[in-house]
Design goal:
The protein is α+β, with helices and mostly antiparallel strands. The protein contains 10 helices and 19 strands. The chain has 3 domains: about 1-60; about 95-185, PDZ domain (Pdz3 Domain, Roll); about 190-360, 2-enoyl-CoA Hydratase, Chain A, domain 1 (Alpha-Beta Complex), CATH 3.90.226. Helix 1 (about 1-25) runs antiparallel to helix 2 (about 40-55) and helix 8 (about 240-250) runs parallel beside helix 9 (about 295-305). It is globular, with a radius of gyration of 27 Å.
């Protein structure tokens, strides 16, 4: 039985080698100095050596998949080859449900680094923050670990546990977090009322129905009374589907360019324009961003900023200005390949630079001195009383979220200036 298995494996290996050799022969029609396939004969020879001489049996598929993964890793951090199980996970992500801890990660300087935890997920509740470096997962170092491998290790059935070691910027010592996995169902759009006439909409990620859900939230807000201001919160939004980012920006921009993508050789691949029909306008907007706002979030923030439709407030965004296409392969695997860079309506490339806010506001309020108690006229004994009508004074409670409070303050200021003009 072992002999038969070896024979079958050898035949399969030879077949794989013959296929590669056939590609080499096909490429021979192209002059050698021009052919991009001229190194395939070296690959075929290495594969043959491994199959025939390596100390133990090897899996053909594993070898080929590993070679493709290595090729993609030589391109950029966002171009990856996904075996069938990983590609299946990616499709689940864009549809809004998967099992794991709920975290978006990136490789930076060879380490798995948090882009943003998804709000309401186990990772968010455990206290993971953008820019945290995950230096080990269940005791295994993540130094030079592939991103797909790290994601696979952190995902798993609901109720199971994963232990991560975290090193936070500005802290010398690392610390451990034990996170209980859950079914991550991402509701990409949430909304509420901040103050009278002021709405708040948070977009957590860009999934298949994000544009539709955001329109529904806006219609619900404007059905009862006129909207006098809106905060669009894109903080810690790791991105997602490009077409949904275009739909979201189109809800607020009546005309002009939203985004364009430039591919290989400077060729324009896509040019997305706004449509006047269905645009929500007539009210000021503040768009909140931070270092966890990436990719599709930056498309929306850049479009709103360039069209002067919204004041962008917060901190500089992540800086992912590249576009990936997803290619499904015959065996159920997938290829995520960087094919273009995107540019804002004003022609800005966000790659590496990010979106710079119009108003910089840190996450925490700056420390303030304790207000010195001083006497006012009304505190003086025997002061004259004002017999005129009492002024209406509304005591407003300050929000714990400093950036959100700042956004609300700016919208209130806009309302005051409109009243002056009126």
């Amino acid at each position: 039985m072992r002999t038969l298995r070896k024979a079958g494996f050898f035949v399969a290996g030879v077949c794989a080698t013959l296929v590669i050799l056939a590609l080499v022969q096909q490429a021979a029609a192209v002059p050698r100095r021009y052919s991009p396939y001229r190194k395939l004969n070296i690959f075929a020879r290495v594969l043959t050596y491994v199959e025939n001489s390596y100390v133990r049996d090897v899996d053909d598929k594993k070898l080929i998949y590993g070679a493709i993964k290595g090729m993609m890793r030589s391109l950029d951090p966002h171009s990856v080859f996904m075996p069938p199980d990983q590609y299946k996970q990616l499709k689940a992500d864009t549809q809004g449900a998967f099992g794991g801890v709920g975290i978006e990660v990136e490789i930076r300087n060879g380490w798995i680094t948090v882009v943003s935890p998804i709000e309401g997920t186990p990772a968010f509740q455990a206290g993971l923050k953008p820019n945290d470096r995950i230096i080990s997962i269940d005791g295994e170092s993540t130094e030079d670990m592939r991103m797909d491998q790290a994601v696979r290790k952190m995902r798993g059935p609901r109720g199971t546990r994963v232990k991560v070691e975290v090193r936070r910027p500005g802290q010398e010592k690392s610390f451990f977090l034990e996170i209980v996995r859950d079914v991550i169902k991402i509701v990409s759009v949430t909304s509420k009322t901040l103050a009278e006439g002021v709405g708040y909409i948070r977009v957590k990620s860009f999934q298949e129905r994000t544009g539709r859900n955001l329109r529904a939230a806006l219609e619900q807000m404007t059905a009862k009374k006129k909207l006098r201001g809106l905060v669009l919160d894109l903080r810690n939004n790791p991105g997602g589907l490009l077409d949904q980012a275009v739909l979201v920006a189109d809800l607020f921009v009546a005309k002009g360019l939203i985004v364009r993508t430039i591919g290989k050789g400077g060729r324009e691949m896509e040019r997305e324009q706004a449509h006047s029909r269905g645009t929500f306008s007539g009210f000021p907007m503040v768009c909140l961003v931070n270092g966890g706002s990436a990719s599709a979030s930056e498309i929306v923030a850049g479009a709103l900023q360039d069209h002067r439709r919204a004041v962008v407030l917060g901190t500089r965004t992540f800086g992912k200005g590249s576009v990936q296409t997803i290619i499904e392969l015959a065996d159920g695997s997938g290829l995520k390949l960087t094919v273009a860079r995107y540019y804002t309506p004003a022609g800005r490339s966000i790659q590496e630079r990010g979106i710079t806010p119009d108003i910089v506001a840190q996450e925490l309020a700056p420390p303030t001195r304790k207000e010195k108690i001083t006497k006012r006229e009304r505190d003086l004994r025997g002061h004259l009383h004002n017999k005129g009508p009492k002024e209406k004074h509304v005591q407003t409670k300050r929000l714990a979220d400093f950036q959100l409070q700042s956004a609300l303050d700016y919208l209130r200021a806009a309302k005051i200036f409109r009243a002056y003009r009126g």
